[in-house]
Description:
It contains twelve helices and 24 strands.
Amino acid sequence: MTHPALTISRILHAGYVFACGGTRIAFDPIFENPFSRNCHAFPAVRFDVDNIRAQRFDAVFISHFHDDHCSLDSLDLLDRATPLYIYCQFGVLLDWVRQLGFTSVTPLALNEPVGVGPFQVIPREAMDADVDSMFQVRAAGLNVLNVVDSWIDDGTLAQLVEEGPWDMVLWPFQTMREIEVLAPSRFTAAPPALPEEWIPQLRALAPRYVVPSSCQFKQEPWSWYNRAFFPISYARFTEEVTKALPAATVVRLDPSVSVTLDAVSLRPAPPLDWVIPVGAQDVDYVYEGNAAAPHTSEIARHFGALTAQQQARVFDYCRSELPAKYGAVEASSDYFDQPRTWLLTLYDHAGAATHFRYRLEPGGPATLDDGAGPPGWTTAIPAAKLWAALEEGESLTSVYLRVNDPISDSMGGTGFDAATESELAEADVVDDPLIRCLFSDTFGAYQAAQLRRLLACPAA
């Protein structure tokens, strides 16, 4: 007896192709390696760009605006008649996509189904509904939940349980230590265990198959983040989920791999021929806590020298734009409710330091300070990465910014005094003045930079 079937193929990270009855739809397609500047496919792949340009999808769904899910460089490879459905609270992103020439760009609304051939795709509410969404996909009598990389609150979980039974759940199996790596000396090395809410949520959903989804990348080969950023291995996820859900099967889908799902089985299907595996694919993550983080001066040596114009842009920002902007970006903790001295250190391609000292007044602009007193906050960053954040929209997770390193060269290896240390213990790392000035009030800087480049140099 032949059962109606659905074919699911992994592209990369949270990217998938679903096929049923001659209709193909894609989710969060990324056709770049690396993507988001320093996310290198893990396991490694390359993309057949000419083949991708020849693909025709009946629709593309994008779960949220983060550049590892919505990249204009990847969308630029698609036929402009492709219907795009995007969940985003910022209409400007849809306008940018239209400027690329796409003729059908539709905002998604939570719980409102979209029909595409045999598919019904329903955006579901994530914990941070201002940013994320999840996708419920129905086709061929099957029910698949694509959690993307969001978290699920109790209300949505109850709704999803009512929407069951679930044939497959694509579950974001990695947690990411984006904040801990900014201040590695100030965080303990979390154990490599699944968050405590995951297993009860998966038990409540009770799927037949669980796919460890999202992630599938590492940073640059030399990066210490590769041992500190991702705590959970494929092996650990499989072990814990299999033990907790003995009726479910954990299925790893590497880039290009396809499976055909029906009511009674899951079987291999021909891989995507435009996603080409490179080297070993049966690789896994290794976690070593804070992994002896190298000094920022050493990290900076991995990046090329700035041109004179680029260096001038960075220095002008530090001398003029940043001090003026500081008073307009608020901190979430009260550490900066009193005057502080802030030391910002930039390291060039040779590891040489340039220091900027500021006096920070509550509610006011920052002022350059030539004093010699000890700082109450320190920030270090490679100069090349500050330029990339300013001009290319590079995100906080890839600029190798370091906050309040107590043994930094800029402090002479002495660290903070006891009183300052006591106060810093209550401060939030993301209250860092540079983080606030660069990232707190910006949207889509990465895609905006992509759009400028793509419109300036349109494809032949």
